[in-house]
Amino acid sequence: MFDPARLAALAAVHRRGAFDLAAVELHVTPSAISQRIKALEELTGTLLIRRGEPCIATEAGLRLIRHHDEVALLERTLSADLPGLRSQAATLRIAVNADSLATWVISALAATEGFLFDLVIDDQDVSQDWLRRGEVMAAITAHPGPLQGCDTIPLGRLRYLATASSGYLATWFPQGVTEQALHHAPALTYSDKDQLQTRWAIARGLPRPALPTHRMAASQAFVDGCLLGLGWAMNPEPLVREHLAAGRLVEMVPGTPLDVALYWQFTRLAAPALRPVTEAIRQAAKAVLI
Q1: Is 92 a domain residue?
Q2: End of a domain among 19, 48, 63?
């Protein structure tokens, strides 16, 4: 019913945010992209792309993009069952939090063949929203669900430690971690969605602090920032284990980890095609998570 080339154009425009960038990705002209989108909109009788900077798919457009992704994965499964068929690697779009990407996810992706991965990096508390909107086929999320049309597999817990350099602690927390000190000591946060520092403080019996913060969307930058005394942060234990052992970093309050449960959620329709990725995700998580 739908021309695969037109659906591919729709997906590329939404994900790249512009007709010319979609044209580069698909090796056609911007005019060809425009014609394909127009033909789809005439066929469906509805607006599929909101033109702007960036261009964004409408709800109907997102539904067609999800259909495009599902068909691509199903065709990959079919080609695996029928070796005589030749197929290109299927693009798999996954929402994943930066800390999982920095600590264990890459090994899972490297263990899986036949896919091109398009990773959406977002906080684990909101990554499920990408799956709910149909923009990704799977997500690593802190929410167990249930989510309509999706299956959920528990992966384990990623342990976070409130860490800083000893010099930073001496400067900003000479009397220990207190409410007053937290209101003045600069922290490191991934974005406005990042609540790990606040959750850790509340778990210590402290009122919700108004944290002065440096924002930086990179897990390794958190570690480097702590090492250089830029601020304190909730760092994944696997990233700071060696620094703690060597004394380059210390826990703000010894023995006070914050464990975040993680789940692998994926669309039920694509489950057979995702099976090798799902197994690799489970094995990689088992080696790192607690």
Answers
A1: no
A2: 63
Residue 207: domain span: 158-259
Lowest mean pLDDT among 34-38, 153-157, 191-195: 191-195
Q: Are 136 and 94 in contact (CB under 8 A)?
A: yes
pLDDT tens by residue, 61-114 = 998 998 888 888 877 776 666 666 566 678 899 999 999 999 999 999 999 988
Residue 140 located in a structural domain: no
- Quick one: what percent of the chain has pLDDT higher than 70? 96
Per-residue CA distances from 243 to 209, 246, 249, 251, 276 (Å): 27, 5, 5, 11, 34
Task: For residue range 214-236, list pLDDT tens digits in order.
Answer: 999 999 999 999 999 999 999 99
Within a domain: 12: yes
Residues 115-130 have a mean pLDDT of 92
pTM: 0.85
Burial of 277 (0-12, 13-18, 19+ CB in 10 A): buried
Look up residue 102 and give its amino acid: A
- Tell me the C-alpha distance between 24 and 22, whole Å: 5
Instruction: Report yes or no on 37 lying in a domain.
Output: yes
CATH number at residue 245: 3.40.190.10
**Number of domains forming the structure of the chain:** 2
What is the pLDDT, as a whole number, of residue 80? 64
Give me the CATH number covering residue 58: 1.10.10.10
Q: Which two tokens stand for residue 259?
A: 């464990």
Contact 107, 101 (CB under 8 A): no
